[in-house]
Each structure stands twice: as C-alpha cells, then as structure tokens.
C-alpha cells in the first residue's frame, strides 16, 4: 500500500500515512494535535531495480540511471536510442 506524506497546517507536524490510491486525497488527521487541517505533500517517486532475493546489487533510482531513456519510439527528440 502506498505511503503519503502530510503536513498539519495548525502545528506544522509532518507525518506519513499508508492508504490506498483511492483514499490518497482524503483528509488525514494529525497525530500530534488531531487537526483535520492537513495537506498532502508532493513527493518524488523512488523506482529501483533490485535488490532481488539472491542479488547483492544496490538499487539505483530511475532518475540516476544513465544512457538510453526516452519513449522508445525513436521518432521523437526525447533521447530514445533506437
């Protein structure tokens, strides 16, 4: 289940909640002051390949990978190799 970060507008506490994608924008209750005046924060996605069972490699975030990229069609200027 995805995790979302929220900030309380009353006490400025930042907290995390696990909830379904369908409930991502629903109001969250601040764990410190119990206020409903909270705002969901935008966070960067972390997509990594590995480690997998039996694989000792360190995962590399998608944004830090080098080479290739693009949409893969080869017809546009997005950097596709191919």
Key structural traits:
three-stranded antiparallel sheet, mainly beta, elongated, single chain, 82 residues
- Average predicted confidence as pLDDT: 76
Helices and strands, in N-to-C order? Answer: EEE
Numbering strands along the chain, what is their spatial order in the largest sheet? 2-1-3
Shape: elongated
Distance between the termini: 35 Å
Low-confidence segments, given as residue ranges, are: none
Q: Give a short account of the largest sheet.
A: 3 strands, antiparallel
Strand tally is 3
- Determine Rg (CA atoms, Å): 19 Å
How much of the residues is beta strand, in percent? Answer: 15-25%
Number of helices: 0
Q: Could you explain the architecture of this structure?
A:
This protein is mainly β. It has a domain at 3-40. It has no helices and three strands. A three-stranded antiparallel beta sheet has the order 2-1-3, with no helix packed on it. A hairpin with a 5-residue loop joins strand 1 (3-8) and strand 2 (14-18). The protein is elongated and about 50 Å long.
């Amino acid at each position: 289940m995805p995790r979302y970060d929220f900030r309380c507008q009353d006490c400025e506490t930042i907290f995390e909640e696990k909830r379904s994608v369908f409930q991502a924008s629903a109001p969250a209750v601040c764990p410190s002051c119990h206020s409903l005046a909270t705002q969901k924060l935008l966070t960067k996605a972390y997509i990594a390949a590995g480690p997998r069972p039996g694989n000792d490699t360190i995962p590399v975030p998608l944004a830090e990978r080098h080479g290739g990229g693009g949409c893969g069609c080869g017809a546009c200027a997005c950097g596709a190799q191919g």
